[in-house]
Amino acid sequence: MNDLEKYFRENKTNLIDKWIHYFGIYDRHFSRFRNKPVVIVEIGVFHGGSLKMWKNYFGKEAKIYGIDINPKCKAFEEENITIFIGSQSDRKFLKEFVKSIPPIDVLIDDGGHTMEQQIVSYEELFDQIKDDGVYLCEDLHTSYWIAYGGGYKGRGTFIEYSKNFIDYLNAYHSTQRALKVNNFTKSVDSLHYYDSLLVIEKKKRGEPYSESTGEFQYEDAPIKQNSIERSKLICLIAINKVLQFFRLPGFILK
Question: For domain 3-202, which CATH number applies: 1.10.540.10, 3.40.50.150, 1.10.260.40, 3.40.1390.30?
Answer without folding.
Answer: 3.40.50.150
